[in-house]
Amino acid sequence: MSVDKTLPDGTSGCADPVLGLFSSPLKVLNLGLDSFADELSAQGVEVLRVRWKPPAGGNAKLIGALDRITRGGFDVETANREAVSRILKGKPVLVDVGKALDVVPGMTKRTVLHAGPPITWERMCGPMRGAVIGGLLYEGLAKTRAEAEGLAASGGVDFSPCHHHASVGPMAGVMTASMPVWIFENETYGNRSYCTFNEGLGKVLRYGAFSDEVLERLRWIEKELAPLMKRALALHGPLDMRNIIAQALQMGDEGHNRNRAGTSLIIREFAPYLVRLGEDGEKVAKALSFMHANDHFFLNLSMPASKCVVDAAAGVEGSTLIVTMARNGTDFGIRISGLGDRWFTGPAGIVEGLYLPGFSAADAAPDIGDSVITETAGIGGFAMAAAPAIVKFVGGSPEDALAWTRRMYEITVAESEFYRIPILDFRGTPTGIDLRKVVETGILPVINTGIAHREPGIGMVGAGLVKPPVNCFEDALFAFAQTYGEGEKA
Amino acid sequence: MKRAQVRKDSYFDSVFLMSLSKRLKDNPQVADAIVAMGTSMNLELLADQGYAGPELTGVTPNDLIIAVEAADAAAVESALQAAKALLEKKAAPSSGGRADAEPTTLAAGLRALPGANLAVISLPGAYAAREARKALESGLHVMLFSDNVSLEDEIALKRLGRDKGLLVMGPDCGTAIINGVPICFANAVRRGPVGVVAASGTGLQEVTCLVDRFGSGISQAIGTGGRDLKNAKVGGITMLMGIAALAQDPETKVIVVVSKPPAQEVADKVVAALGAAGKSAVVHFIGLEPGSAGSAPASVHFASSLEETASMAAAIAAGRPALAAGRPAMPVPLAPEIEALAEREARRLAPGQKWLRGYYTGGTVADEAMILLHRLTGRLFSNNQGDPAFVPPDPRLSIEHTIVDLGDDVFTVGRPHPMIDPSTRTDRILAEKDDASIAVVLIDVVLGYGSHPDPAGAVVEALKVVRATAEARGGYLPVVASVIGTPADFQGYEAQVAKLEAAGCLVMPSNYRAAVLAARIVEKAAKR
């Protein structure tokens, strides 16, 4: 009996996969005893040894939840493909600059947005409190520190996470009504996102500083820088941020903790239009110098660019994609596409990294900020291979940077078509974190981040890598199994 | 003194750890050593052994425990150091710290080896089914070596495999030969026109080796796992897929099916599938008399032993009539040589020597001997007997005629299968050396990949001891053996046979003949 080995599908070369196996060289994945792999290799068979570990660290409850999800009859794979395709197709465009009160959904004069999951004044860490005080002083809602603290503690202001308002904020992430914000639009899906302007390093509001110097800078941003940028952008036209981030990744940035290239590209984009505004040369020079002096100017652009893209992937029924990771300095929280607005939180960790001279781990505040939106979108720590220089923060080698990115492919469901990493042969960045894979492999998302001083107002004291708390992923998995898993559906 | 040490987050395979424990215990200064993952079962075991220090609190299944008992602190320390060295030797390829160097998941493995077509899974049963499912979903055929996979999981996996046209060999499948490559426990046989689908491990090994010995060769040999045909709910999914594939396979001229007696409806389906295959087929349902399986198409031949299965298949493959070549008309009357040999051996026995003792490492060959000998003696005990009346009350103690399958779970808790670590068998043989009522010892020696590097060498010392002990008390103890293997196996068939013969064993060319000879000896012993 003859077998047709020239089928047009070109995959197995055989209609029957078993006959396909019989007619092609064995290529074996070995899970378990090495001796089996050794003996196959000795026979010249191509074998790959998978260094298998018990899923979910051998935790029977977690494995049970994973299995209930698998057997639940809900096609999680398809849901995840849908969710991640929204991330992959998303096109973040910088469209305008506006005043928070006018443009950010739900913003009021007495609203203070902050980074991370919801939190009360009582539970806020030092830098977060400092930033709140600064915000209230800046808005004129309080005249002194004491007054601001009293107001915050009395419930006279509404605290709310940036993430609940289509916004993101680095570190303390405090946004108040008068602040100017970058306005992004996801051109593919039409949703918008918002973020304040980056104030530079050192004594700045996002690290909890609220001295006069800080407030003056904020006012300069509001009165002078933001209007200039708004007009220059209007002349320039909408700015395709996906394109800029893609370029920055090829220039040694990862879009979270290293933004030198991104900032430079923004200056290149804006400079001619700033000049054309016909403003006083000194004024324009000050704006350009400010951007030039602050490598992280771009962070407040890469963050909302990531935010509007990931937001489109939220709310996909049955999807285990992680669509939010954020910290408020007290809690680390995540949200899952298929589980609506529920936060799953755990204690914010201490960043492992290098400290600026004169500081040590004793000075560090716990992990804080919405900037982990970049990792959620597949850049930041996930693109570390693009930014080998960043590893100096964690005392590692460029090899480690490659390894981190490669490891993230194990917990993600897709690769970006736009964000590519030259040294990985232009492979797309690992995109779309699958909650199940995180729990199953025990590989936590790698997050690059800055370290804030535990006391308000001192600023950045270092940078490094932070591990999210395991329990928030586990809790989310249990909740997902409860909602979609076998036998547990409510 | 006793000491336990914990290495956090260091996962090792249990079989590797068991062999490591054994190597530590080989040191005469070490009274006991347990190297195991921190599962609750292992922690209980350690507590029972008196390891209960604070170092064992908070241990997880991902942590490795090294527990050592030795004469003094220095000996304990040196044993711990030895364990460390052995563990690190193993870990060397993955110790580069590079995340990409060693994929830790099946998905990552697939990315690292695009075009992989077979997953060989020997993980603990509790995890094996999950990984098998992922492999199938990724389009890989699966060889599932693991046991302790639930029936429910087996059915689900095989249905998934069937829907995708992918083979699920196993669970509890120890052997296969795909495209001439022996996988797990399998022998280096010639390639040829005989295709095999077998629901039994050593049955497949014995048949493929004998096909080789009869001058033919194997196209493909597919293991199905023991429940495939036995359990009507599984319904022979893998067997039927295997038959269908061999029917299409241009290299295969003869299809051989070997299994323990299947559920009747499954047997009917198998025979019908073979009839529809359009090729000659040889079927052996172990323990089922040819002819008792009902009517069958003319192209389907039934064999009465593993040896006959191989000889019929080889004959058909060579274009000779199956029956003339395949029916040596055994067991009665016996070939004259066997009769003469039995006579010679029986004459040397002392009065009171009357029982047969079979010490087997291979399950199917143990079954073949058990069924034959039970039929001939009417009363044979074995842990593999279906009828509880013939199951020894204590599996560790032989009574009257006994054939023990030492690969049974009872004997493999905490130690490797006796085909890997033959000490289970030598311990048992030596434990019964003072039993003056034993008339004959029957053993199998299984060669091939996966097996011990010198299984004959590993058993002969114990055999010499029992033979000498018998002689010392004025008796004589014949040992009948057969070797499953080929000249191409790395242990070397001839060399292994020579070792057994040098120790005074009577080496028969097949397990079937070995069992017949042993039966003849005890028959004659009873008449004396």
Architecture blueprint of SSEs:
The complex is a heterodimer of chains A (490) and B (528).
Chain A: H1 17-22, E1 27-31, H2 34-42, E2 46-50, H3 60-71, H4 76-89, E3 92-99, H5 100-103, E4 111-114, H6 126-139, H7 145-154, E5 158-161, E6 180-186, E7 192-196, H8 212-236, E8 239-240, H9 241-250, H10 260-276, H11 281-292, H12 299-311, E9 322-328, E10 331-336, E11 344-347, E12 352-355, E13 368-369, H13 373-376, H14 398-408, E14 412-421, E15 427-433, H15 435-441, E16 447-452, E17 460-466, H16 470-484
Parallel strand pairs in A: 1-2, 4-5
Antiparallel strand pairs in A: 3-6, 3-8, 6-7, 9-10, 9-13, 10-11, 12-17, 14-15, 16-17
Chain B: E1 2-7, H1 14-25, E2 30-37, H2 40-48, E3 64-70, H3 73-91, H4 106-112, E4 118-121, H5 125-137, E5 141-144, H6 151-164, E6 168-169, E7 175-178, E8 181-184, E9 191-198, H7 201-213, E10 218-223, H8 227-230, H9 237-248, E11 254-259, H10 264-276, E12 280-285, E13 300-302, H11 306-317, H12 322-326, H13 336-347, E14 355-360, H14 363-377, E15 381-382, E16 402-405, H15 409-412, H16 423-431, E17 438-446, H17 455-472, E18 479-484, H18 493-502, E19 506-508, H19 511-527
Parallel strand pairs in B: 4-5, 5-6, 9-10, 9-11, 11-12, 12-13, 14-16, 14-17, 15-16, 17-18, 18-19
Antiparallel strand pairs in B: 1-3, 2-3, 7-8
